[in-house]
């Protein structure tokens, strides 16, 4: 029961990133890139403190560090920018489905064996994403915002593929966050929109960086060794659903039937892929 509660807390934290970002950026309380910068800075500090407390040392070197930093930056920038106009639930669904499709493509490039069920699952998930982008239906999303979130999904998918080779994921994540700070700072400086930075926007970005990102990742890496791979993958299926519920509850976002159908297709396709891998 305790393990279940910890996993539930992590999934809520991951989903909360979408709600916090949408609330701050979509509400005009802070610029998207400023939110991303504060998020990565505060997350880097939180993760670095955790690693120092545990290991008494912190190293930012390591294999594939450049790929990890650049893909993390792509995720952070695309994620924040998309939430200028994208609903929290729809954004989480695009992110989650896009990450799975990206990792599927990575597995193809690596020539991993692909059972038929995994092919079917990937196609079903992709059809759900295509439905969201298809004009004229209730699940359609703004094209630019959807493209930005899809870019974020590619970034996080690559980050996950690179992270498979990391010997110590928490230490690697802390290093990637620290090195992504100057990159995000340059992007934030170049992309300044003149939007006002409010205290509420800063607080929401800090919560996203320290609590739902830094502490969320740390807790996830702590419980992950105690979970079967299939259980961990299925648990993550709840993240878009929680984000849809959070958007409806805290942001009064509509939940059209078409969005529910697209959600079912994406999550059903991912579930098929999980069963195939198992």
From TrEMBL:
<keyword id="KW-0472">Membrane</keyword>
<feature type="transmembrane region" description="Helical">
    <location>
        <begin position="174"/>
        <end position="191"/>
    </location>
</feature>
<dbReference type="InterPro" id="IPR000620">
    <property type="entry name" value="EamA_dom"/>
</dbReference>
<feature type="transmembrane region" description="Helical">
    <location>
        <begin position="197"/>
        <end position="220"/>
    </location>
</feature>
<feature type="transmembrane region" description="Helical">
    <location>
        <begin position="117"/>
        <end position="134"/>
    </location>
</feature>
<keyword id="KW-0812">Transmembrane</keyword>
<feature type="transmembrane region" description="Helical">
    <location>
        <begin position="257"/>
        <end position="276"/>
    </location>
</feature>
<protein>
    <submittedName>
        <fullName>DMT family transporter</fullName>
    </submittedName>
</protein>
<feature type="domain" description="EamA">
    <location>
        <begin position="147"/>
        <end position="274"/>
    </location>
</feature>
<feature type="transmembrane region" description="Helical">
    <location>
        <begin position="89"/>
        <end position="110"/>
    </location>
</feature>
<feature type="transmembrane region" description="Helical">
    <location>
        <begin position="227"/>
        <end position="251"/>
    </location>
</feature>
<feature type="transmembrane region" description="Helical">
    <location>
        <begin position="65"/>
        <end position="83"/>
    </location>
</feature>
<keyword id="KW-1133">Transmembrane helix</keyword>
<dbReference type="InterPro" id="IPR050638">
    <property type="entry name" value="AA-Vitamin_Transporters"/>
</dbReference>
<feature type="transmembrane region" description="Helical">
    <location>
        <begin position="36"/>
        <end position="53"/>
    </location>
</feature>
<dbReference type="Pfam" id="PF00892">
    <property type="entry name" value="EamA"/>
</dbReference>
<dbReference type="InterPro" id="IPR037185">
    <property type="entry name" value="EmrE-like"/>
</dbReference>
<feature type="transmembrane region" description="Helical">
    <location>
        <begin position="140"/>
        <end position="162"/>
    </location>
</feature>
């Amino acid at each position: 029961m305790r393990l279940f509660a910890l996993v539930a807390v992590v999934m809520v934290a991951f989903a909360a990133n979408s709600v916090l970002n949408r609330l701050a950026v979509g509400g005009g309380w802070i610029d998207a890139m400023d939110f991303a910068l504060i998020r990565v800075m505060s997350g880097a500090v939180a993760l670095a403190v955790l690693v120092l407390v545990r290991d008494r040392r912190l190293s930012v070197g390591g294999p594939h560090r450049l790929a990890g930093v650049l893909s993390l930056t792509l995720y952070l920038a695309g994620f924040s920018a998309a939430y200028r106009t994208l609903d929290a639930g729809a954004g989480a669904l695009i992110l989650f489905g896009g990450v799975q499709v990206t990792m599927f493509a990575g597995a193809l490039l690596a020539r991993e064996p692909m059972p038929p069920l995994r092919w079917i699952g990937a196609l079903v998930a992709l059809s759900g994403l295509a439905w969201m982008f298809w004009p004229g239906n209730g699940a359609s999303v703004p094209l630019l915002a959807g493209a930005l979130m899809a870019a974020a999904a590619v970034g996080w998918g690559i980050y996950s593929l690179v992270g498979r080779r990391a010997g110590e994921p928490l230490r690697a994540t802390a290093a990637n966050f620290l090195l992504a700070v100057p990159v995000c700072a340059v992007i934030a400086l170049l992309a300044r929109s003149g939007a006002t930075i409010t205290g509420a926007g800063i607080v929401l970005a800090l919560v996203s960086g320290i609590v739902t990102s830094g502490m969320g990742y740390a807790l996830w890496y702590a419980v992950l060794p105690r979970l079967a791979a299939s259980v961990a993958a299925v648990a993550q299926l709840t993240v878009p659903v929680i984000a849809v519920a959070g958007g409806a509850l805290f942001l009064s976002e509509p939940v059209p039937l078409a969005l529910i159908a697209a959600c079912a297709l994406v999550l059903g396709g991912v579930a098929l892929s999980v069963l195939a891998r198992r």
